[in-house]
Amino acid sequence: MSQEYPCSCSNSRCGRQICGPVNFCPYCGASLKSEHRGKFDPPAKEDKKEANSKAPPTPPGPNDDGESKPPYVEFVRKRLEEGVFDRKEFIAAIMQGFPEVNKGGVETFLSDMESGENNAHFNPRQVINHPTTGKLIFADRVKPEEETKPKPNSGLNQKIQPEPAQGPKLEPGSPLPKPRWKLIAAALMVLVIIGYFLINNHSIPFFSLGKWHTTSSLQSGGKSSSQGPREAARVAALDALRQGTLLSISVSKVPKLEKVVQAARKLLDISQRYKAQVDSSEAVLNSAKKEQDKLLISYVDKVIQLGQYSPSQISYALDSIKYGDITNREKIVAELISMHVRSLQNGASPDPRRWLADFTHRFSSYAD
Length: 368
Fold this sequence. Notes:
Blueprint: E1 7-9, E2 17-18, E3 32-34, H1 48-53, H2 73-82, H3 87-97, H4 103-115, E4 127-129, E5 136-138, H5 144-148, H6 178-199, H7 212-219, H8 223-270, H9 275-307, H10 311-322, H11 328-345, H12 352-363
Antiparallel strand pairs: 1-2, 1-3, 4-5
Helix pairs in contact: 3-4, 8-9, 8-10, 8-11, 8-12, 9-11, 10-11, 11-12
């Protein structure tokens, strides 16, 4: 007798009504169950000739209850033998190889397979997750040693015990290694030498290097003692040269800024919109003059320090600067330093205004 429609799925967990001519449920893969007509119109009557010409009904599948099996059962069976897919990979592979089936039916099929319910296709074999890889596999395909083997991440939370440091094991009374004895012997020798010098009130050679300059100066008849003030005078001359050079640069810059201010004021006479430019240029000029005053005070102080040395020491210091590798600007500054120091030696007092006038005369229009 041919199948009547509509009919419902024999799987109690699915139970959906099927209205088309199919042999298994497209949702879960289970066989169909006939129902009494009533909700839908009965199918049209067929002639006897047409009924006789129809093909015989589809024979039942291999299950004992006569239910038809989904087309992907053998595919799943082979992959369970190999243990190569997990649940998500099984669904993707089945949908790719059997696009006519429903994804919900495949998920229900796999759920029944994993839980063991309605697993008539693979009974009595049980499907489990592989203890190492997590893939779906038949339980009888797992080797005994793999069941006891821990999972890859099972030991992450275990404390890692540090391995004891390996080294030479020394038993009580055993001699130390030779390298250690050499170090201990060298340290004892140094301590003995230091103790000897301390007991006999001798200076220790390698701890008295800082006294060498003083003792050698006394033994050489005071030759190095004369070198000290000359070098100090040379350092003072270099400080005066540095400050004088900065002062000369400031003296060269101030006249240029004054010209800028004058030009801005002429523009202000034409229009009041140049007021901001005049204020800005005047601020820059005032800042340069204040800086020039500070440099002048520092220069006067350095020249006074240089004038405290003897004429021979000052002459040595200035000659070492003049005949050194200096620029043309620094040569002019050295001449001014020599002139200002000479005035101090002649008994004159420091005159910052006159000295600034000397710098202005030499550097107001100077260009490097």
